[in-house]
Amino acid sequence: MKEHNQTPRDSGLVPPNPLSVVDRRSGIDRRDLQDSSDTNLERRRGPGRRRSDFLRSAEEGEMTEEQFLFIQAIDTFKRVNGKTFPTWTDVLSVVRKLGYRKTMESELNLSNQTCDWTESPQGPSGVDSISEDAA
Fold this sequence. Notes:
By secondary structure, the chain is an all-alpha fold. Helices cover about 30% and strands about 0% of the residues.
């Protein structure tokens, strides 16, 4: 019987970069690392952070009037247009037709990926208008 003294590294099964895998025995705990780029979209609350009444009621099935109106509008859009899964553009058009406008600065930290803007609360939705490029 032949002895097999070849290690996994010698056989090419282990990546050559020793930094590709963090050894858990090193004592580094990723939960202790603080990410300074919080976006205000994180779902994990962490210790001592409770859900807001808005989230708690929605998760428990008790919707506010605003949530119910949004659900009804999306459901009507899907039924009228024969779409099971609306695109993000479809969802945004429904939101704008409900009367929502960007009148405040964003509360999200998107790390300069896009520029922030505001618009007039009485401005048109702009959803049904045809641009000159499309005409």
